[in-house]
Each structure stands twice: as structure tokens, then as C-alpha cells.
Amino acid sequence: MNLSLKEPRISTLAIPAQNQVRTAQEVGCDMGLSEKIYRNAGLIFPLLATGGALTAAGFIDPYLAYVATSWVIFGLLGLSLDLVWGRGGLLSLGQTAFYGLGGYFGSIIAINMAPLTGNTLVWSLPAGAIFGAASAAALGSIIFLARMGPLQATILSYTFTLLLWSLTQSFKITIGHAVVGGDNGLSNIPGVVPGFGQGVESAGPVGVFVTVVIVAAAIYFLCWWLMRGTFGRVIDCIRIDPQKTELLGYDIRKYQVASFSLAGAIAGLAGAMFGAWANYLNPSIFSVQEALLVPIYVLVGGLGTLAGAFVGAFAIGGLSYYLGGGAVGGQTTLILGIVLILLVLFLKNGLVGAVGELWRRTLPDPNAAARDAGAVLIDPAVLEGILAEAEEQAGPAKRLATVDLYKHFGGVIPVNKVARTFEPGRPYSLIGPNGAGKSSYLKVCVGIYMPEAGSVTVGDVDATNAPIFERVRQGVGVKNQKPQIFGELTVDENLSIAAFARTRDRQAAADVSRRILAMLGFERQAKVQASALSHGQQQWLDIGMVLCLAPRVVLLDEPAAGMTNEETRELSSLVRTLARHTTVIVVEHDMEFVRTLEGHVTVLHQGQVFAEGDIAALRTDDRVLDIYLGRREHV
User: Fold this and answer.
1) Residue among 569, 578, 605, 560 nearest 428 (CA)
2) Which of 218, 312, 343, 558 is the residue whose CA sits 20 to 30 A from 381?
3) How far is Cα 289 from Cα 309, in angstroms, rounded to an integer?
């Protein structure tokens, strides 16, 4: 009797958005240059803006230069938030805390040390950055090492800012020549002195503007370069899907703390520059109003764009400056509020994001190749070569064993004292009705769920209490029930970031990615956004990412879901080939697919091992038919 619970489904391709971008033929022969400029817009236009600002400094009004300097500083503060929010996915309301701490600490150092050199920035900026980074690292360690959720992290960062605002109201201390007077703040902060030596005068408004623009530009380009690299790619992956990033073997907590510390350093440096610009600091720098202004700068300019923080600060600052000149009869706050609401409602990607979206529509559609893709055809020779090389690099296949593994959620027990050993050499299949505990068992094996009792062993290593990334590094590769890919990245970028987790070398990761692309027949789809792939193709991409890790134990949860009959046959061939080099465990509902694997089958029911053997014998077992069909005493 055929127990297949899945009807074959034809894989459909992603439907393009209503407003499709034009093809290269429609746009013309100059598209290559336009596309290159678009791809490097984050470098080219900020360079032009920096050059324009430095040129304008030659004839700008000194008062406007003085005011505009504060906009640049606020933009730098916004950049620190965009790193952790726009790129990292965490809305931190603690950036003004690091900003204020860096401002106070950097200014205190400058007051005491600047007389030795004349130059103030060589003392205040590094000191502010270091103190901002240290305080952010302390707070970030609490947030990320404890694996707090986004809401709890936002509340904690906001609470931290409010505590500092409350404490600084009455905090008084004298450090050398610096006097922190509580509500009276910190005064006598030396201005911007770019030169060295005794008797060097502070720069005027225009000189301060030029100095701040140069410092801010240097910080921006450093962040742009960093976020374009592997570090930034991992941060993006954490924002998109933190669990999948950890399933690739990355300790996401270290990346999150590092990113948060970098943002704290930038905020602290901005605070030190603000102190040198204003020559005065007081507790209002930690106020609620200041904390809530920073996200507005980022939203108005464009979340996740980095440059948008400066655009937002200039847009809000410039509008306030114009309205404050009496142009609207004293209704500055009302009109500014209305403008900001309209911007956030109708330009959801901010000013920079809106311009980028309009420009993108004039470029060739990078996802056009997804619409022309046929069924995936595995190249067996390439696959064998990849697996043989992986075995040389990562070692032989490992045994996976569980002893009395137990997991419960309240009164529900999805894994009930399961004892199983899986050896390399042949495929293993886990079958059973819905709710039998198949997926839960795999998740306990990989560490997504921690067991209440029992043990998990990978090779000779006890991995029972190991976090996900450590089990992956021990050789476990997992494809969960739902395809987990990074939809905002291209197919090639998905594979490269997976390969880099193992190789830790960009060139080696690119080589692995190219070989997996060739094996899957995805060369034409390399630059396609992963979210544009069909469900079946996303399943293949997820499997390809697992293979990039060269795992010694492979866990596949319903890999055939959403695949065509032809692709299912290819998948069966891939699993059988994998079993010759690794330990493979497959969870599936499609009994015909399980039959083609010609491996050992275990039936789970109510979280326990119910029966096992080959699929032909199990298909004739009345007990197995009972639990699938809902009849007699075994249901």
C-alpha cells in the first residue's frame, strides 16, 4: 500500500513585482556604466558630498558653518545607530548614552592633556571612542550573550540612557582641571585645535566645519568598507535570519558584540567632537528627546544605507534652520513634525532609499535569470569531487548517537527517550505521522532545542549542551523543514557566506561557491536574489549551503517539499551519494522518495521509536498503517 502523504507539485517560479525594472536592451548600451555607479553609489556620492562640503567651506557664512558642523556630528551619531539597527536589526536607544559618555570622558582628557601638545583632538577623539566602545561592549555583552529578544534589548538600552540622565543630574567630581558639576555640566572644554605646540589658537567656525567633515568622512568610509566585506555580510545575515547564521557555524554573539562596540566607539567619538564644538556639556545630552531624535535621523535618511544618517541629519537640521528664520510665523515645530511624518509614511526607505529604488528601476533586472531557470540537474561527477575533497579537508564521516533523548514543552513530549545510532554508509530516514516528533528530534540533535535529559554524541564528542555553532563546527550540517536562505542576498553570496564559515578565506570560499553552483547547475542564477527563486530552488540552495560546510553528519528535514518529480529523483541520487561519504538522516513524508533511498527507516510515533526496518516491510506492517490511517489501537 502506498503511504505517500505528498502529491507531486510542480515548482513555480517567483512572480516579479508589479513595477518591473527594464531590461538592458530597453535601457541602452550605457547601462554597464550606470550599473557600476549604482553598485558603488555608497562610495561615489559620499566622496562627491565630502568634496562639495569642503569646497563650500571656502565661501560659506561662518554662522551657517557653525550650525552645519552640528549636523555633521549628529549624522555621525546617526551612523552609529544605523550600524546596529539598519544593518544589525536591533533598535538601540542607548546611542546617546555612549555619545554622552564619550563626550564627557573625551573632554575631561582634553582639558587635562591638551596643554601638553596644543592639539585637542588627538586626546579627546581616541578617549571618547575608547570609552564609548567599552561602555557599549559592556551593555552589548549583557544583551547578546544572554540572547535577549529585540524588544527586551531596546528597553534595556533605553533604560541605560535614562539611568545616566538621572545620575548625571547630581553627579559631581573634579578630575585634574576638569570639574563635572552635575546639573551645571562640564565647561571650559577646549575647542578644536588642529595644530601642535604651545600658543596654537583654536580653529574658527569654518576650520571646525572642515575638520569635522574630514573626520566624519573618514569614519563613514571605514564603515562602508567594513560593511562591504565579510564582517558586514555576516551582520546582514544575522539581521535576516540569526538562527540560520548560527547553523552555518558562526558565533553570532561575538559578531553582535563587535558591531555594537564599533557603534559605541563612533557614538563616543561624535560626543567628543560635540564637546569640542560646543565647549560645554550637560546632562541634557542623555535626555529622552536626544535619544529619540537619533532614530528619526536614520529613518528620514534611509535605514541601512549608512549615508542616510547624514542625509537625515542635514534634512532635519536644514529644515529647522530655515523654519527657525521666521519664514512660517513661528510654526516651526508643527511644520517640521508634519514633514517628518509624511517622510516616514510615504518614503519608507527614507530619502536615500527612495532615490536608490527609483534608480534601480532603470537598471537591468538581476532576477531575470530566475524566470528562465529549468529543473535542477545534479552533476554527479562534480558532487563526487566535492565530497571527496571535503572528506580530505574535514576528515571522515562521523557517527551520530542519542541516548534516551528527552524533550518536552509543558505537557507535550515531542522527543521521548529516543535512543538511536546513525553510522555512515547508507541513508537513514525518519518517518511518522504529523506530530510524531521527527523535526523536534533533529532540532534537539543540532541544538535548536536543548534536551531535558539524555545525551547527543557527534563522533566521540559529547555535544548535549553545546550551542548550535559548536555542533556545526564539530561536523553537523542541517537543512530545516522550511528553506532557510538569506533572501536579500544573491545565490552566490548565500553560498559564499556559508563556505567562508568553514574556510575563513574569501578566495577559498569563492572557489567552493563556484563548485557548488556548478554542481547544482545554478551558474546563470549566481547573481539572482535568493528570494526570487522558486520554493524548490530555495530548497536546493539551502542544501547547497549545507554542502559548503563539508559536514560529516547531514540532517535533512523534508528536503523534497516543493520539488518536481524530476528534482525529487535528483535529490534521491544526491542523498545516496552523500551517504557514501557522510552520515545522512532524512525526515520525509513522501514514502516513494524514501523508498528510492534504499536505506534504513525508523518510524516515530508520539515522540518514541515505534518501528524500524526497510520501507517495504514497514509498508505491510499493520501497526504502521494504523498510526498513519488512524485506525485501531495504535493511533
Assistant:
1) 578
2) 558
3) 17
Q: How many CB atoms lie within 10 A of CB 184?
A: 12
Quote the pTM value.
0.89
Specify the residue for cell string 518591473: 20
Domain 380-396+426-448+467-601+615-634 has CATH 1.10.3720.10: no
Segment 293-307 shows an average pLDDT of: 91
Collapsed DSSP state (helix, strand, coil) of residue 453: strand
Residue 608 buriedness (CB in 10 A; 0-12 / 13-18 / 19+): middle
The mean per-residue pLDDT over the stretch 235-264 comes to 96
Q: Is the dihedral of CA 12, 15, 21, 26 positive or negative?
A: positive
Q: What are phi and psi of 486, to 5 degrees?
A: -95, 95
The confidence score (pLDDT) of residue 376 equals: 77
Helix axes 350-360, 31-39, angle to 10 degrees: 160
Query: Looking at residues 204-227, what average pLDDT do you find?
Result: 95
DSSP 525-588: GTTSBGGGS-HHHHHHHHHHHHHHT--SEEEEESTTTT--HHHHHHHHHHHHHHHTTSEEEEE-
Q: Residue 22: what residue type?
A: R
Q: To 10 degrees, what angle do helices 506-520 and 535-548 make?
A: 140
How does strand 178-181 pair with strand 172-175? antiparallel
Burial of 372 (0-12, 13-18, 19+ CB in 10 A): exposed
Asked if 565 contacts 10 with a C-beta cutoff of 8 angstroms, the reply is: no
Q: Cell for 17? A: 513585482
**DSSP string for 422-451:** E-TTS-EEEE-STTSSHHHHHHHHHTSS--
Angle, CA 52 vertex, CA 50 and CA 55 arms, to 5°? 110
Confidence class of residue 237 from pLDDT cuts 50, 70 and 90?
A: very high
- Report which DSSP code applies to 602: E
Stretch 53-80: mean pLDDT, rounded?
A: 94
| pLDDT (mean) for 294-322 | 90
For residue 202, the 8-state DSSP code is: P
pLDDT at 372: 65
Reported as a single tens digit per residue, the pLDDT across 87-128 is 999 999 999 999 999 999 999 999 999 888 888 899 999 999
Give SS3 for 138.
helix
Cβ neighbour number for residue 326 with a 10 Å cutoff: 9
Lowest mean pLDDT among 364-373, 482-491, 574-583: 364-373
Task: Locate CATH 3.40.50.300 in the chain.
Answer: 380-396+426-448+467-601+615-634
pLDDT tens-digit series, residues 34-63: 888 888 888 999 999 999 999 999 888 999
Helix (H) or strand (E) holding 413: strand 412-422
What strand order describes the sheet that includes 428-431? 476-479, 553-557, 583-587, 428-431, 600-605, 608-613
Cell of 329: 510665523
